[in-house]
């Protein structure tokens, strides 16, 4: 806390005990719009991989970064919104 960069906290929970290794190989930076306020991690395209949705408040858009399947994300595709979106929520609205 206290820095101006936003951080993502990784939490892993499992009810059975097992040995596991998690390896972080280095920082990868992804560009967003100006003043990102909120993000959500959800499979937006139905491929079974988690994608990133971010509210770019000062850019007046929402960005979607699709998971490429190799541990990386594609450059964001933006969708215009009204003024200053400050949060994103994902839901299956048509039940498919």
From TrEMBL:
Pfam family, any one: FG-GAP_3
UniProt keywords, alphabetically: Signal
Lineage: superkingdom: Eukaryota
InterPro entries for this protein: FG-GAP (IPR013517), Integrin_alpha_N (IPR028994)
Designated name of the protein: VCBS repeat-containing protein
